[in-house]
């Protein structure tokens, strides 16, 4: 389940400013998957809180059932450069709440990363370097539209600090930054270096009120997910085999949710890139461990999702990932605070996440 906590953090910032900071050209980055009827405050009918699900990654009739059992264990080939593009589209709504107009929002984030692999060392360790290449974001919240595109550079700093008129420009500071990840012989992550430097750079250049937004967006677990696939089974599989996983994710107000995922291996699929493996999955969400006497609490009403994964058959590296998820939650307030505020009702999140491999090339072998 992908819950974009950074969007809620930005809500606290953007909600205080009723002026838009985006240009007409930047507004065009909104993906066609967002089923919207207007793009600015006071225009059109905004009662449709749905998103259009993307096209399926495969035709079921084209999937083959291999005779032999298949290994789905990831193996990063040495001296390669992989370019991945990740995209998250999220719509937040509050149904018939008195605060619905304030809470309703659309957001899209898109990052492009380079993953460069090297040969394993004498101890079996393999280093993968992950570099931020580009970013593109769009947020429509509280009637404000804010957009950012790292490929359209403008003067965004004032006295070496981020221009608060568009808080998204803080991403300029991490474009080109790299993170080094060490894998052991089994492909498990042993060490990550560089993330603390990125956060320190952000802390030195970004005003305090924006730091929580960037901390929620630039997360170590997102980078981990590009390099280590925790959902893959250790045993070989045949078409129709299923397996389960259970993992925890932090969401709003430092609360945790538990994701119960069920995976099914469908078989092999010939594609332009070559032969691939196809996996489908479904997921259900439940509240994590209860904290003692929290000032604010998250009330999970329900969460579910589904998706598909395409892996390269030769080394099980990711070619495409797609998920569609929905979550409903409420925020429990202390009695004295709740008495002073209108009832907010539940927040409804509809999230579409995609990852796709857009380029692979060989690197020169280093001496």
Task: Write a brief caption for the model.
The chain is mainly β and 367 residues long. Helices cover 14% and strands 41% of the residues.
Helices and strands, with pairings:
Elements: H1 5-14, H2 24-27, E1 80-93, H3 100-103, E2 105-117, E3 126-141, E4 144-149, E5 157-158, E6 161-162, E7 178-183, E8 189-193, H4 195-205, H5 208-217, H6 220-227, E9 242-250, E10 256-271, E11 274-287, E12 297-312, E13 318-332, H7 335-338, E14 347-362
Antiparallel strand pairs: 1-2, 1-14, 2-3, 3-4, 3-7, 5-6, 7-8, 9-10, 10-11, 11-12, 12-13, 13-14
Helix pairs in contact: 1-5
Which keywords apply here?
two-stranded antiparallel ribbon; mainly beta; 41% strand; twelve-stranded antiparallel β-sheet; 14% helix; 367 residues; globular
Describe, in plain words, how this protein is organized in 3D.
By secondary structure, the protein is mostly beta strands. 14% of the residues lie in helices and 41% in strands. The chain has seven helices and 14 strands. It has helices spanning 5-14, 24-27, 100-103, 195-205, 208-217, 220-227, 335-338; strands at residues 80-93, 105-117, 126-141, 144-149, 157-158, 161-162, 178-183, 189-193, 242-250, 256-271, 274-287, 297-312, 318-332, 347-362. α1 (5-14) packs antiparallel against α5. Mean pLDDT is 79; it is low at 8-50 and 154-162.
